[in-house]
Fold this sequence. Notes:
By secondary structure, the chain is mainly beta. The chain is about 10% helix and about 60% strand.
Amino acid sequence: MHQLLRILARAAVIVVIASLFPAKLHASDLWLDASYAKPLRWNVGAFLFFDQDDVQNRNGGRRIIVGGNVGPNGMQAWGGKPLDLPGGGSNGALDLRAVITRTWDNPRGASPNSTYVGGEVGWLGQVGFWGASRLSVGYAKRVSGPSPGDGHILTWGVGFEIPAFW
Length: 166
């Protein structure tokens, strides 16, 4: 029960962080995801696309993306920028993200009960109107917590994402 309350409290923090954007940004798309990632293992989350002023102009240069994931081995909060590939999205899309990860008792390949800060590059492949697959790879440095090893980890993830509203 204690771990469930911890998960819910941290998920609430993610929602609050995602809400702290200037009024010039407008949320345009909400997506849900399920993934397996290092160091979180199985996790679920959500992310929002925010557009600046002109909601109709959705090219990569005018959007940001924020979100978070939570699972039994940790949580992440992140923000970044989607980058369009040639072909207008039919080939998928790349994104760059700054990531804060907090591990709990049993993370995969990372120190337990530690905080990591790093970055990721991800590829969102177009599966269809009902969802997309995402692959990511990144690097993170431990900024707090126990210090076995050198304090650096390579991160990766494989997941599936669906729009929250059709």
